[in-house]
Specification:
Layout lengths: L10 E6 L3 E9 L24 E14 L2 E4 L2 E4 L11 E3 L5 E9 L3 E16 L5 E17 L3 E11 L15 E3 L5 E3 L1 E14 L2 E13 L13
Antiparallel strand pairs: 1-2, 2-3, 3-4, 3-5, 4-7, 5-7, 6-8, 7-8, 8-9, 9-10, 10-13, 11-12, 13-14
Length: 230
Amino acid sequence: SGDMGFNTQYFYGELENERYDLIAGYYLSAFTDIDVFPNTLDYEGPNSFTFKYAPQVRFTPVLYRSGDSTLTLPMSLEKPNADIGVPDRFGTYSRTPDAIIGLRWNAPKWHVQWANLFRDLGVEDSVTGESITASAWATQLTAAAGVFGDDSVQAWASYGKGYANFLQDISGFGLDAAFNTNLELKPIKARGYGVGYTHSWAETLSSSGSFGFLAINPDANMLIDPTLPK
């Protein structure tokens, strides 16, 4: 229950062949494209990058192959970890795992990935046992390419409702969803995008820079702390 008690990076098993890849265990979410993460000294940046670990089962069949390039269909079911600011008598509750499906074209010098996230967010009343749920979703497009020798450029953009816990700078603030004045649980809209560039000076030395923009847009009648970031 809760987050893992140790700062575990990976703990998984993998079966891989020419037709598919199967992963089971604790690994980066399929919604996270770590290949577009620009090198940075900021542990919590770039601000708009979607970064999350989760216990999961992921199946990635190869749909098409052309030389060294492949078209794959990543699909995963992941442990839900709803991040919702709730009154004391409520606790977070999810009936189903997070589901992710996408498409990825992987070539030797570049790749592009489209990922889609579907979530069931909910809270449960510890006194009455009543549960209140809301559906959430997000979509994301990411890409990276090699340019000018060993240099590379990265880019990402995402939009959705109820996926704040996947976004670097607003994860942990309880901004996946909130009650409104009618006591309805509603997912909170968010969007983010960013770019990065890495210049290689030598085989073991490089410089990188990145820019990110992140915004959340809670409805005016949502019952959330007004001091939280927007």
